[in-house]
Hints:
With 383 residues, this protein is α+β, with helices and mostly antiparallel strands. It is built from 3 helices and 22 strands. The longest helix is centred in the middle third of the chain and has 37 residues, at 120-156. It is rod-shaped.
Amino acid sequence: xxxxxxxxxxxxxxxxxxxxxxxxxxxxxxxxxAAVPPLALALAGLACRGGAPPAMPAMPVRIxxxxxxxxxxxxEYVATLKSRGSAAIMPQVEGHITRIFVRSGDRVPEGTPxxxxxxxxxxxxxxxxxxxxxxxxxxxxxxxxxxxxVQGLKSSGVISQQExxxxxxxxxxxxxxxxxxxxxxxxxxxxxxxxxVTAPATGVVGDIPVRVGDRVTVTTLLTTLDxxxxxxxxxxxxxxxxxxxxxxxxxxxxxxxxxxxxxxxxTFVSPQVDDQTQTVLVKAGIxxxxxxxxxxxxxxxxxxxxxxxxxVPVLAVSRISGQYFAxxxxxxxxGLVARQKPVKVGEIVGNDYVVLEGxxxxxxxxxxxxxxLRDGVPVAPQT
Length: 383
């Protein structure tokens, strides 16, 4: 039986039934005021009004429609910079270093002396060859005089043609000997010039690992000389993507934060695969702006093409246990509701993530208040 309890000064009366109170009999009864809990009275009042707890209000959020934009399809690889004007300076002769004219870091023009190797032994050789040349010159002069004398006697009919021929042969032999000695002298003089090491081009002197007094050979590295200008990025691309490589493909040099340092294009694709690393060598010319150095390891981004891909603001994406999530506002019968969706993101373009999976073009992405949202919470767009 349904009763409504009215407590007025300890008196109980029956009213239109709307609440069933356990333990009450149909007969009227008198209850003390303290016997009716206030919570029961409150519940009785709610029940009498026939209402339910009010619905949760919609949370105001900012919503952005996901739009597809053109995004580069690219891959990043570790590359090595090499200077086209970088030269390893090695001597062409052996000997002891007697003088070093430059210091590391000096900028020198072409032909500047760098080092001096002891030339005394070579100078003695050149001097000996020059003395030999002088002797051959005298021999040629004597043979020519003899030939002229015999030729005059032959004209007078004093000597035979055979003697004239012998004189001519002696002159030719003397001149040939002189030419051979002169060639040796030039060779030794050229060898002597190698004892002074000079800069082959304009550039900056690198490290100098040798010291005065060191004995060097033709395989000893004296220093390096780097000329300013164009460098090349050597990129090793996995053989699985070798079929996609083409001359002229865009290559971007980026720093650790993804900022582009230089733009380039593929200038060379190796026809062979490295049997040790199973990679294909790719080269791209890069203008040296002063921020890059030869032999530096860099990040090279090879752009394979572009595709239409949705993007979402970075602030709209949260990461939980290594998985990325974003909230999307979906229309249901009672209005918009926030739905949490796992997403797979790619690189960052500006302030947006490139979304590879989980969100499609046209989805309404919630970009504010995501830290207070839960799956299924009603939301309303901010105006």
